[in-house]
Amino acid sequence: MLKLPTPNPFNEGLERCGANFQPLTPLTFLERAATVFPEHVAIVHGTLRRTYSQFYARSRQLASALARQYDITRGDTVSALLANTPAMLECHYGVPMSGAVLHSINTRLDAATIAFQLDHALSKVVIIDRQLMPLMQQALGLATVKPILVEYDDPEFQESGMRAEAADYEELLSLGDPNFDWLMPEDEWDAISINYTSGTTGDPKGVVSHHRGAYLLAQGNALTTSMPKHPVYLWTLPMFHCNGWCFPWTLSALIGTHVCLREVRAEPIWAALSEHRVTYLCGAPIVMSLIVRAPQEIKRDLKQTVQFFTAAAPPPETILAEMQSAGFEVTHLYGLTETYGPAVVNDWHQAWSKLPSQEQATLKSRQGVRYLPLEQLDVLDPETMQPVPRDGETLGEVMFRGNVVMKGYFRNPEATQKAFKGGWFRSGDLGVIYPDGYLQLKDRSKDIIISGGENISSIEVEEALYRHPSVEVAAVVAMPHEKWGETPCAFIELSSQAQASEAELIEWCKQSLAGYKVPSRIVFQALPKTSTGKLQKFVLREHAKLLSQ
Q1: Which of 120, 56, 44, 32 is nearest to 84 (CA)?
Q2: With 417 labelled, which of 128, 227, 258, 477 sits at a CA distance of 20 to 30 A?
Q3: pTM for this one?
Q4: How confident is the model over 170-184, as pLDDT tens digits?
């Protein structure tokens, strides 16, 4: 006789209700900070100082103005093309407080890519830094959508110029209610932001993040990095990168101080480190080079230890040594847009600090282990979905499972299904895993080049080269670069009887690619191929390494 399952007595008469269940959202961090520490300095920007009570009030004003002036509501998209300014921080709260989804646009993109994103995201309002308004106007000339424009005039941007025909950001806020009864998400699965990938195969994909994941990753940042109460954080990492790796929300949870930085340059970085006693910052290895290789006259003696969190390619051993000597502790992180930013950390063991420097450098080159809010991380055979041996040698695909994995790709169910095939998020990155459970990336199946923290699709660069009439075959790989970590290096076979110079092809690429995507080196040679005609990019990568030496 079939035995029926016994009802769980702990589920009887113990239902969810408003008293015991609320959707998780990082927006509540700001409300708590403003309530408990209203006078604590939340934002520093040049001479500007804003407390948490002011930060919260202005975010509510933004939410109110968007809702009442522009009828923005749940399911709408509000885009932001902004530098690391107070307005960008306010957008991270005010936009989702209106019920809308925040779309942060990479300020380094070309107009065509921005136009694609605006159309795909169904943008209804765009908030634009005055300096970036010409770029946005160019993009809007290519876009189908006609969003409302709001111009932010940053007082730290001193250059003169014509004001655009757009609403003024401060005037818009003045129309909002600082006591606005802002919208909690109806469900913690509701979207809080959309961020676009670099477009490894065709058009960029819109990565949708939810309130629950943002809440957990923001707290995961604090726990994983051992951030204490009242940290001082310098914005060297662009806030458009995975919502600043969720640190705009982390800082409110810890009642920290955001030190905004409009331009990432050595002089203002060192000045901020000293003047504001900065304790934390994030960035690509290029930021470390910028700091330690700065002219001696602008460096300062730091009275505090500064924690620096870096991602992308492992920093060179020499840079790590110089950072340590200058008073910085460096931690290597790894993640993707699809994981809200960093979800893997090279969790350092104290015993490792006693090892020879070369062994330490080898250990630091590993990406590490999962963040606390990430439930599972492994290297699997993409065909069998079985874990590879933990031998540090067997290649597999890095895969993620947990609440800090994206909701999916916006308006792209096919790509979403492909990414989640097998019940894991497939990163597309190839790596190994060691006996101690630490993983290390070995290659990128999508041929992504990471230059200065920016992802570059080799396919996109190749397509630009293929459009040149003299190019027969093009292959683009990463070439090591002391300053940028990596830059694109293009190997070219010219068509029969055709001629083209390196300078000519570089100039050609500049016409259709953002500056950081343009190859730094072009090599003309016969390209190595398999018997079936497939390009052997691993051979070219080794060649590129030799060229960089």
Answers
A1: 44
A2: 477
A3: 0.87
A4: 999 999 999 999 999
